[in-house]
Amino acid sequence: MTTPLSLPTHPRILVVSLRRIGDVLLTTPLIRSLRRAWPDAHIDVLVFSGTHGILAGNPDINEVIAIPERPGAMASLRLLTRLFKRYDLAVTTQTGDRPTFYATIAGRRTGGLAPDSSSLGSAWKRWLLSRSIEVPGNIHRVEQMLLLARSLGIEAVPQVVCPAGAAPAGIDTGAKYAVIHAAPMFAYKEWSRDGWRALAAGLNQRGLTVIAIGGPGEAEKAYLDEVWQGIAPVHQVRWPATMALLENASVYIGPDTSVTHLAAAANCPTVALFGPMDPRVWGPWPAGGLDVPWDASGTIQHRGNVWIVQNPLPCLPCLKEGCERHINSRSVCLDELRPEQVLAAVDRALEPT
């Protein structure tokens, strides 16, 4: 193992994670590793506004600092003043310019992911960071965080930490039920409306009540109301309530979203519908860890409490934003995914362990 960093008895540590909600959740194994290595540390996490809820109640974190994605000049100046050399260690979980800059400004010692050595941006970032690691391609995001922990000379803890929460009011969690979150952020990760409705009918035939959930956004609500019209009411729940629902569900089904990552981490039997993205990097991380990496594609893959369902066309995974290469385009691999295949994965997930 790399020689551990020498930090004060009660160090102040900052973790920078300026990406989407699911990525912030998958940063929690690094944060837990830091907490185990320095139990008396004060650990803050810098994230974008709108992603901080996924860290609610996380016992490893002292404070979450949420910033706008595009702060103005004065907001940026206030942030830099607040961060300037306030931390004994600042760690960036990304190779981008802005997170690397923030970590360098904030920490007396720094660590982080560095770009590929062939990248033009690699040299200066490696020079700025006290400890850096180049991450090999096609390894899981959690594995990236574990490699980063080891580069700091600490034991890597492969545990995704979920938000804490209570059961939502008005939803009966006593019966057997399936939770479905059908709304990814972008259209290229969407399954078809008819697919979801056929899935719901199949779940009902298996004696399961369908609980359809969504976030507070108006666009998401409108999309889900169209999907579930006449089938099931849509419950708009926040992260703590989502967590409580997942802990008692018979099964969860969803596309490549942060909720799907949360379901896997909550040890809920999870069926994940994957399209263009690479499950080797972004597949849900099972509650017991990922002993065998996900394959790039397959019909139904199973690891731990997670089943990944794909329509393995020759182009999969293309890593593109839909077949038309923009976030509002559709993905044929998902549009042509058959409900029977998803229900086959659900049946496997429902089998007694």
Please characterize this protein's 3D structure.
The chain is an alpha/beta fold. The protein folds into two domains: about 140 residues, Rossmann fold, CATH 3.40.50; about 170 residues, 3-Layer(aba) Sandwich (Rossmann fold). Helix content is about 35%, strand content about 20%. Strands 9-8-7-10-11-13-12 form a seven-stranded mixed sheet, sandwiched between helices. A six-stranded parallel sheet has the order 3-2-1-4-5-6. It contains 13 helices and 13 strands. The model has no long low-confidence stretch (mean pLDDT about 95). Helix 2 packs parallel to helix 6 and helix 7 packs parallel to helix 13. Strand 12 and strand 13 form a beta hairpin.
Describe, in short, the structure shown.
By secondary structure, the protein is an alpha/beta fold. The protein is globular, with a radius of gyration of 21 Å.
Low-confidence stretches: none
Helix content: 25-40%
The CATH fourth-level homologous superfamily of the largest domain: Glycogen Phosphorylase B
CATH architecture of the largest domain: 3-Layer(aba) Sandwich
Helical/strand content category: alpha/beta
Largest sheet, order of strands side by side? 9-8-7-10-11-13-12
Q: Mind telling me the C-alpha Rg?
A: 21 Å
Beta-strand portion reads 15-25%
The CATH topology of the largest domain is what? Rossmann fold
**What best-fitting shape do the alpha-carbon axes yield?**
globular
Count helical runs: 13
- Compressed to H and E, one letter per element, the order equals EHHEEHEHEHEHEHEHEHEHEHEEHH
Just give the CATH class of the largest domain. Answer: Alpha Beta
Mean residue pLDDT: 93
Largest sheet: 7 strands, mixed
Distance between the termini: 37 Å
Number of structural domains: 2
Number of strands: 13
